[in-house]
Write a structure and sequence with these properties.
Helix content is 32%, strand content 11%. It has 187 residues and is an alpha+beta fold. The relative contact order is 0.10.
């Protein structure tokens, strides 16, 4: 499904399937798709419908048990390594941006964007969600073969001011809570 269009002339196709857009353009689907991408300077987005209800049920049944940190058949290394890879490989090693900017991009910026009150910064009266890590050592270790392998360089994680992870192990504390944004209706 077509989404995230930049070119105003193409916005009429937002929410349509590529097949519908191609029919309207009277072109074969691949030709229409590539013409569309070029006309939007490759700035468009798409929604992909790749999982059935059965797929979802299998995933939910086999989802990662964070209390056991056990390997399940459908785990992905990004579940354990995304932020460590970003900070270690892209920021520190590839010098994509300063560490301070990277930390802002994964803390205060998304908290502000999602209107999460009193989160994303270290301030008096804010929730203390803090990860203590060594910038020289932070790196992901998760692989497709071992997707639940913990990252290196993370010393301590506080959630709502309580230590949940320290020196490579969970502490047993469960201080997290559901974060609900402006769209929450209470149901």
């Amino acid at each position: 499904m077509i989404a995230g269009i930049i070119n105003p002339d193409l916005k009429k196709y937002k929410g349509e399937m590529v097949s519908e857009m191609a029919a309207a353009e009277k072109k074969p689907e691949l030709d229409a798709l590539f013409d569309f991408i070029l006309a939007d300077q490759a700035q468009n987005g798409a929604l992909y419908f790749m999982a059935s209800e059965q797929d979802l049920a299998i995933w939910l049944e086999t989802a990662l048990d964070f209390d056991r940190l056990g390997r399940k058949p459908f785990d992905h290394p990004r579940a354990f390594g995304s932020m460590a890879r970003f900070l270690g490989y892209y920021v520190r090693d590839q010098k994509l941006m300063p560490m301070e900017e990277a930390i802002r991009k994964i803390t205060s910026m998304p908290a502000h964007r999602e209107h999460l009150d009193r989160r994303g910064l270290i301030n008096v009266g804010f929730y203390a969600d803090i990860t203590v890590f060594d910038p020289a050592a932070i790196i992901d270790e998760a692989t497709y073969q071992d997707p639940n392998k913990l990252s290196n360089g993370v010393d301590c994680v506080l959630v709502n001011g309580q230590v949940e992870f320290e020196h490579g192990a969970l502490t047993g504390v469960k201080a997290g809570q559901a974060l609900r944004g402006q769209g929450w209706t209470g149901r």
